[in-house]
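Structure tokens please, single chain.
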Amino acid sequence: MTRRETGNSTSSLPTPLAGLSICFDLDGTLVDTAPDLVRVTNEVIALEGLPATNYGLARAAVSLGSRRLITDALDRAGHGVDTARLDVLQREFLSRYAEDIARLSRPYPGVCATLDELDRMGARLSVCTNKPGWLARPLLDALGMTARFDRIVGGDEVPASKPDPSHIFTSAGHRRAERIVMVGDSWPDMEGARRARCHGVLVTYGYSYRPQIRLRADTRLRNFRDLAPALIMLFNRHRNAGSY
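Here you go.
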């Protein structure tokens, strides 16, 4: 259950990040899911008699979805299939992934401790992911992370997913952009933050398929543990300037 469903809440005492809503991307930001996604890709292309694909190249395409993972792996092997067969392979991928979604996936270092720290500081936390909700929730459940969030909003649960700003607003639960931060690892996250006119934090260890230098992030972090102090500094400046 999410934090809202369990009734968990932060203290009513003043806290450094009170009133701030932080929306997190999932794959490549909170959880390193590439090992499972590439594992399942290899299982699926093995049905075509192909060997394991290049891990590094497949990892870079994780944020593009299951169909792209499969087609890229087939292309690297010089193996073509028609659309009907590709549909079958994608269904097999999703079935296999859902059955064993967290065999190898783990939160990135410092993620869980930092989420707990942000909660104690008064921030409201949510997941804003283009991953389908019917996969995002079981993944977070399997990793014991669900209760840390007010909302988990998958890309299939909104009329338009990131970079559409409405996805971010739905995840935050409001449209006060000055009180929303979007934390992610790739273009849909940073472009979504830009369109929503909220603060975008790029974690540079993730799965960006575009050069990170081209992503217009307001803040860049190499380590998730640095998120809390970065936000405290940012929103202290905003409060002092009277813009928060």
